[in-house]
Write the structure tokens for this entry.
Amino acid sequence: MGHNPLGRLAVSFLYLLLVIMAVTGLVRAGTDIYYPPFGVWAQNYVAADPATAHELKPYDESQVNAEKFAEIKAFKSPFGQVHLYGAYVLMVMLVLHIAAVIWTERREGGGLISAMFTGKKYLHSSPEDI
């Protein structure tokens, strides 16, 4: 009565993609704007003077060590690429998932879409997996 095997695979892939998006987004936010949980580490690493690390402002390169800032840029670049292309893949997967739900609803019936809102699926016959 749940997802078919392809639907389970799609949902698993969507969850994996969301985890990847969250991790890459946190790394980018930490290294770009010093946002937690990785921001404190990035601030302390790139600060020219360790005493002024907490005073660093996002996108302000005046109080940073140029060499360490370049290293952070090189470190965060792949995370940005994965995050960008992950967003594109996520959009495509969401459209494909919605299209598959509509196609399955038209082919099999059973109130698949209404079951998403009400939690009740109406079947014409006994389910095959019981």
Notes: The mean pLDDT is 87.
